Amino acid sequence: MSTSKAATGIDGLDNILSGGLSRGHVFLLEGEPGTGKTTVALQFLLAGAQAGETSLYITLSETEGELRDSARSHGWELDGSIAVFELTPPESLLSAEQHQSLLYSSDLELGETVAQVFAAVERIKPSRVVIDSLSEIRLLAQSSLRYRRQVLAMKHYFARFDTTVLLLDDLTTDTLDKTVHSVAHGVIRLQELTPAYGAERRRLKVIKYRGQKYRGGFHDFTIAQGGIQVFPRLVAAEHRSDYQRQQYTSGIQELDDLLGGGIDSGSSTLILGPAGTGKSLISLVFAVQAMARGERVGLFIFDEELGLLYERMRAMGIDLQAFQDQDRLWVEQVDAAELSPGEFSHRVRRCVDQQQIKTVIIDSLNGYQAAMPEENALVLHMHELLLYLNRQGASTFMTVAQHGLVGDMRTPVDITYLADTVILLRYFEAMGEVRRAISIIKKRTGTHESTIREYKIGQTGLRIGTPLHAFQGVLRGVPSYFGDNHPLLQDDQT
C-alpha cells in the first residue's frame, strides 16, 4: 500500500491534513445540507484526475445531471475526467403505474444497493471513490447494527483495491449515531453559522485522523465560483524569520520625542481614542515615512469609505492614490458583514508574504470585532496575527474608537496588553475650546515620554505642541491650569 497522501485539491485543507488523505483508507465528510460536501468531494476527485488517477462518484441522493450542473457552476466539466455512477432502481421494481413517479434509492433493498456499488467499482477500478450519501444507506439498513456491519463490509471491500474513499453524510437522520466515526480512518465536519446580520459563515474541523498529526480547531472556509477555499487557523509559532530590529521615525519631531525616538520594526502599535481624534492620520503619518524609505504598506480599512478617506487625506497633504498608483500602497476595503476572521488573517498574511509588505495598518478593530461572533475569540485571533506579523519584522498599527467623547472612555475590546506601544488620544476643554491631547501610555521596546502634549489637525497635517506641564486633569477632559504662560497651540502658529 502506498504511504503517500491523496491531495484533496484544496490547498488550505491539505495544509490542515498535513498533505491530504492517507491512501487506501475510508474517510467521512459530514455536514448538514448546504455546507459544501459535494463541492469538496468534486475537488477531491478532480485533483485525482489531474494526477492521472481514476475517479468515481457514486450518487444515491441526486441525479447525474444535477451533479454535472453543480460542477459547471464552478467551471468544471466532468466528461472524461470523473466517472459518475447514478444508483437507480432496476426497471423490474417499477410497475406500470410507477413509471411516471419518482422512486428514491431508499426503495431498493440494502443488499442490492451495495451490490450495485461494488459492481461499479469492479468495472471502473478507481483509485478514488466518493459515495454520496450515507444517509440513504442508513435508511435502508433500518438498524444501527445492520448499518455498521454494512459500512464495515464496504471498508474491507475497498481496502482490497487500495482505494481512497470519501463517504458523505448529510446528518439528516440521527446525528447522535457515531457508527461511521469509529470505522472511518478520519472524520471531517463542515459547519454553517448564521450570524444575526450578514452572510453565513462556514467552518470545518478535523474530528479524527488516525496515525496522523493535523491542525486542530475550527478553520474558516468559503464557497465561491471555482470551489472551496479554506483558511487554516493561524499558529504564529510555526512562522519564524530573522530580521534586524530598527527604529523608524514619524517625520514629526515632537511625536518622535513622545515615543522615545520612534517605533521599532517588528512591533505593534495601538492608537486609542474617541471618534474624530485623528487615529487614522497618525497611523498614515508612519505609513508615509515607510513608503519614503522604499517600503510597501498594507492598509486594511473596515469603517471608512475609501473615496472619503482619500479625499480627507489629500486635504492634509497625503496623496494615497498617488502612492497606490506607484505600487507602494496596498489598500483593501473590508466588509465586516461578509468576511470571517480566518479569511481576514489569510488576506493579511498573503499581503505580507507575497507583496513583501513591512507596515500593516488595521483601521479599525471596531470593524474587525463586528466580524467576530464572540469577543473572546477576537483577542485570540489578534494575538496570533500580531505575533505572526512581529515575527515577520512587520510594523503593525491598529486603531480602536472608544465610546464617548469627553471624560471616562469605554473601549469595546481591550487588547492593550497585546500591543507593544499604546498611543492615547483625548479631547479636552480649555479656554472655551475643544482641544486634543496625545500621550504614550506604554512602550515595551524602550523608554518614552510620560508627558501629555496638545496637537492640532489642519491643512498642513499633524502639528504637536510642547508638554502641558501646567495642566492637571487633561485626560479627564476638563483640566485645571496652574501656570502663567501660554502653552496651548495657536491657530496661526507655524
How are the SSEs placed, and which strands pair?
Blueprint: E1 5-6, H1 11-16, E2 21-22, E3 26-30, H2 37-50, E4 55-59, H3 64-72, E5 83-86, H4 110-124, E6 128-132, H5 134-141, H6 144-159, E7 164-169, H7 179-183, E8 186-193, E9 201-209, E10 218-224, E11 227-231, E12 247-248, H8 253-258, E13 263-264, E14 268-273, H9 279-292, E15 296-301, H10 306-314, H11 320-325, E16 329-333, H12 341-354, E17 357-363, H13 365-370, H14 375-391, E18 395-401, E19 421-430, E20 433-443, E21 452-458, E22 461-467, E23 471-472, E24 480-481
Parallel strand pairs: 3-7, 3-8, 4-5, 4-6, 6-7, 14-18, 14-19, 15-16, 15-17, 17-18
Antiparallel strand pairs: 1-2, 8-9, 9-10, 10-11, 12-13, 19-20, 20-21, 21-22, 23-24
Helix pairs in contact: 5-6, 12-14
Describe this structure in words.
It is elongated, with a radius of gyration of 30 Å. By secondary structure, it is of the alpha/beta class. Helix 5 crosses helix 6 (144-159) and helix 12 runs parallel beside helix 14. The strands form five sheets. A nine-stranded mixed beta sheet has the order 5-4-6-7-3-8-9-10-11, sandwiched between helices. A nine-stranded mixed beta sheet has the order 16-15-17-18-14-19-20-21-22, sandwiched between helices. Strands 1-2 form a two-stranded antiparallel ribbon. Helices cover 29% and strands 27% of the residues. It is built from 14 helices and 24 strands. The protein folds into two domains: 5-233, Rossmann fold, CATH 3.40.50.300; 238-481, Rossmann fold (3-Layer(aba) Sandwich), CATH 3.40.50. The chain has helices spanning 11-16, 37-50, 64-72, 110-124, 134-141, 144-159, 179-183, 253-258, 279-292, 306-314, 320-325, 341-354, 365-370, 375-391; strands spanning 5-6, 21-22, 26-30, 55-59, 83-86, 128-132, 164-169, 186-193, 201-209, 218-224, 227-231, 247-248, 263-264, 268-273, 296-301, 329-333, 357-363, 395-401, 421-430, 433-443, 452-458, 461-467, 471-472, 480-481. The termini are far apart.
